[in-house]
Amino acid sequence: MRAYLKQPLVISTLVAMFCGLITLAQPLDQGYWNTRYRFGQKPAPQSVVLVTMDAGVNASDREVARVLNAVAAQHPQHIYLDRKTYTASPELQGTIDRLGPKLSLVARFAKLDRFDEGSIALPPERVVPQSRLVVSGFVSNFLGYGVSSVVEAQLGGKTYPSLAAAIANRSGGPGDTVRPDFTVDPQTVRMVSSDVLLSGAGSQGALTGRTVIVKEPRSGFSDLVGYFAHRRVDPVFLDIALIEALREGPPIDIDWFVPIVLCTVMIFMTQQVRSRRLRRMAYAVIAFNILIGPALLDQVGVVSNPAAAIVELASFAGIRVWTKWRQAVLQTSRSGLPNFLTLTQTPLPPQHDVIVAVIGRYEEFLATLPADLHGECARQIARRFAVGCGARDICHGEGGLFAWIEPTRPLDQQIENLEGLRALFAAPLLVGQHVFDTNVHFGLERNHEFDGLTRVNTAVASATEALKRGRTVELFEAQRLANAAWELSLLTRIDEGMRNGDIWLAYQPQWDYREGRISGAEALIRWNDPVRGPIRPDEFILQAEQAGRIDALTYWVLDQAITATERFNALGPTFQVSINLSAQLVDKPSLISSVAEIVRRRGIDCRLLTVEVTETAGMCNRPAAIRNLQALRSMGFRLSIDDFGTGEASLSYLAELPSDELKLDRRFVSKIVHHERERHIVASTINLAHALRQIVVAEGVEDLSTFELLRQLGCDVGQGYHIAKPEPLELLLSRYATMAEPGTARAQKR
Ligand code: C2E
Ligand code: MG
Ligand code: MG
């Protein structure tokens, strides 16, 4: 029943009925009829002539008597005297008596809509016999426009005809009302002024055989009444329009109710039409009928008020458009399933988890399916989820994403459930003739304090992560949201950090065994974020790489390192500074031009700079990388293979790269004292490097015995905490001149 009440047609009919009942749509009706009667107006009946009293409202009885006599002299068919009040002065009384049944007096109801004794002042019996009295009064709409009039009035047990009914010679039943014929143009009513009449100039015979209404002018707001398409007029014009209506016969008044019924029936029938085009045409016909119909019916004497039906049609169309729009927005186009926005439309119920499932290789499978089966495929998957988890509404995002909510359970139980749900997908999907082996991954979100949209989005991120990592379920930790926000503003933060000194370079000295001195240093980036504290370089460098910001960072490092090189070399013998080049950047076409630009600007001797490269999977275009490195080398840079022995293809790198130096990874170096295997690896790598005319730098020299053993193995350069930790440039510069061999008496004293 409730669902039925939500039907657009039911709602719009109820709205229209409500508007009709409490006359809420009257302004619309008013507008409608005002517009309608601007067109197709006809002249007023010429058998009625108005004689207006030029003496004004306060015309004396003598004046009135003179005018009446002048009118009577022209032998009209009948005279009506329309005054506000009637007194029985001898002058006027004489005329009234003399004219006898040729003269009637008009008494008007003072208030619109009130037709009782209290609102009318009838002339006393001694002025005129009651049989010679007629009345006039109008029912008005909310703007004071006369919309109908009584045909006769019952006052004090007597029946008085209305002015119009008397002129038209019609009678009506008690309480009958008639709508004036508003097509009568009040401006065409024949009028003669009393002055003209009394002077006799040109008015001879104008009244002969006609019905004459002698009236005082009216001008006060309350004395006038609204006339459709003509603002406020003297009520006598409405009387004349009423005469015409009475002559045409009593109209059928269907008011607002019948139009609503007709509109409802027409909409209902149109809804049954299957063809969309025909349906549209039918709606257009309904609209046309509702707008033009009442005007046409009015022509044939059927009075209606179309506003409520217009309200019905407009609200029906509005509800339809709105539901269609909602459907389009809230449903996935192909599957017809609700989409993810549905989940965020209303607040999520408390203590519910958001679960997003992603179907692996879904897009690939769709590519092999005919387009008309795409929706079926999604619906089948949704059914399987619904069966497995018991959720009623499974939402479908674009791609292979599905989402629903479930009451929160203990985590292990929830994960177990999802594992079970995954097992449901072990059986392949059969869509049409196509078989689809699926695997499904879940993102689980249970941060109830977040808003719906954030929860759905983060569950999607977790599901995607689970798919990427090949896990069944990925739980979204609240901390990750904070991290995500931080990561998303990384670019700005890096720029800011480089500007304000939060990002800086530490220099770790390198000991040259052959020369017995510090012969260089590696520039290592540092970031002290005011909020997060120190951030490890390998952490933010990876993020910078992913965010495409690594180039700016690397060029900044190069520029800083050049300054350091200049300062070290100003202090003594040749000093090498090494910088690390990200694998992401090595194969970029712009690398060489950017580096060349910096080198040219700074005027540095590139032979003092070493570029360390690591072999990682991040490098996409190997030949381009090799070309770039060769170009760097021909500019004068020394090349070093960093972390040798840990990359994916260190040896082939060694073979292909025109390198000068090989850096042994600390994972081997730190074990050479106690582990024979690592010692052999390091020893033979040193020999290999020497055979290829490379010098060897050992990383991670943490103690004296390692330091000494490396010397014995023929290592050329050592770097590690035993020699010195990475430190700020100024500190290292100040110590550099006095730095002795680690482990010697001088060094130990320090
Ligand atoms: P890496 O190039 O292999 O740098 C050597 C790392 O070993 C540095 O870590 C250094 O502090 C650390 N280290 C030095 N001696 C010792 C030791 O005796 N024992 C131990 N346990 N560690 C030692 P850090 O500074 O954390 O840098 C890590 C990595 O970040 C670097 O590895 C490098 O790959 C990358 N990185 C640092 N700065 C930059 C840079 O400016 N650009 C790029 N692209 N990468 C950089
Ligand atoms: Mg390095
Ligand atoms: Mg290294």
Task: Count all strands and give the number.
Answer: 32
CATH class bucket of the largest domain: Alpha Beta
**Helix and strand composition category:** alpha/beta
Counted up, domains total 4
How many separate helices?
A: 29
Q: At the third CATH level, what is the topology name of the largest domain? A: TIM Barrel
Query: Roughly how much helix do the residues carry, as a percent range?
Result: 40-55%
Which regions are unreliable across 5 or more consecutive residues at pLDDT < 50? none
Question: What is the strand arrangement across the widest sheet?
Answer: 23-24-26-27-28-29-30-31
CATH homology superfamily of the largest domain: EAL domain
Largest sheet: 8 strands, mixed, barrel
The shape, in one word, is elongated
CATH architecture of the largest domain: Alpha-Beta Barrel
Strand content: 15-25%
Bound molecules: ligand C2E, magnesium ion
